[in-house]
Structures are given as structure tokens and as C-alpha cells.
Amino acid sequence: MLIRKTLEKYSKTLHGVSMQLFKLISINLGIEPEAIGKMFENCTQGIRMNYYPPCPEAREVLGLAPHSDATGLTLLVQVNEVQGLQIKKNSKWILSNGEYNSIEHRTVVDFEKERLSIKAFHSPGLRAMIGPLPELVKEKTHKYKTIDVQDYLKLIINSKLDGKCLIDHMKIQ
Ligand SMILES: O=C(O)CCC(=O)C(=O)O
Ligand SMILES: [Fe+2]
């Protein structure tokens, strides 16, 4: 019962944080402050906790294969402060530093230390359309498709953890 209450509070707080971040991202993009937040009004939130035990073969294995998250915004906390999240930048794996684009990332494990992480994934409401924000592509050619949530979910299921940004599958060829 206690964990449920704590998680509910945690989830609500993180939702609030994500809404604030959507506002700041919109302002930074030069669009109406509520533009992105509106899509997340009936947001679906998923929370995942990962436990990576210490591994004697740490150099030979990965904690999690390269992938990009299929959700709108992921908030992550490295619970016991053991580093292990890496992003791909200029073809190199480096420690993550947070970007707007859905960056390819993976996790590595440690020889001696266990690692814990908690993620909160925020996805738009089930009626949303997934694609470039109209405000951002006014006079430009659309580089990405716009599809409904159902088709987007199909795309996620069909594109396994293959390291490619899911966004590549949305590109108009
Ligand atoms: O454990 C981490 O640091 C990241 C895990 C992750 O990328 C994910 O769960 O999607
Ligand atoms: Fe991820």
C-alpha cells in the first residue's frame, strides 16, 4: 500500500515536471507555450525500473541494447548514482547529456557495482496524431509522416530494438 501511494505521488510529480518542460521546450522552439503540452493533456505515462547487477564480464556485454525511446519525453534518474547510460554522438558512445531529438542510447554494466535506474516515459493521448508540429513546418516540406497513435504503436512493435532511431522509420523517403 505504501509503495503504491509513493509511486502515485512520484508519477504525479513527474507528470507536472514534464508539463513544465514541454512549456519551456515550446518557448525555446518559438511556438505557442502550450503547443506541445496540449498533445500531452491526456498523456499516457509508463514507469520502468531497471536493475543491472554487477557483471564479471562487464566489458563483453551490454545492459540494454542500443535504441531510441518511442515516447515523447523520458525523465530518468540513476538511483544509486552509478553511471551507465551512454548516447551515440558523432558515431561515438559518450555519457548522456540530454538533447531534444530522440537520441540513440544504450546502457553498460559495471564489474562490481549494481546499478538502478527509474524512467518515466510520457506519450501523447490516444487520440493524438504523431508527426511534425504544424507550427514548425509551416512553409517547409514535410520530412516526416504524420500518423495516428494506432499506426505509431504498430511501427514500434514492428521495429525491434535495432539501434536505429525510430524517427528514421517516420522519414518520408
Ligand atoms: O537504465 C538506463 O539508464 C536507461 C534505460 C533505457 O534506456 C530504457 O529503459 O529505455
Ligand atoms: Fe531508453
UniProtKB/TrEMBL annotation:
<dbReference type="InterPro" id="IPR044861">
    <property type="entry name" value="IPNS-like_FE2OG_OXY"/>
</dbReference>
<dbReference type="GO" id="GO:0046872">
    <property type="term" value="F:metal ion binding"/>
</dbReference>
<dbReference type="Pfam" id="PF03171">
    <property type="entry name" value="2OG-FeII_Oxy"/>
</dbReference>
<dbReference type="InterPro" id="IPR005123">
    <property type="entry name" value="Oxoglu/Fe-dep_dioxygenase_dom"/>
</dbReference>
<keyword id="KW-0408">Iron</keyword>
<dbReference type="InterPro" id="IPR027443">
    <property type="entry name" value="IPNS-like_sf"/>
</dbReference>
<protein>
    <recommendedName>
        <fullName>Fe2OG dioxygenase domain-containing protein</fullName>
    </recommendedName>
</protein>
<keyword id="KW-0479">Metal-binding</keyword>
<feature type="domain" description="Fe2OG dioxygenase">
    <location>
        <begin position="43"/>
        <end position="124"/>
    </location>
</feature>
<dbReference type="InterPro" id="IPR050295">
    <property type="entry name" value="Plant_2OG-oxidoreductases"/>
</dbReference>
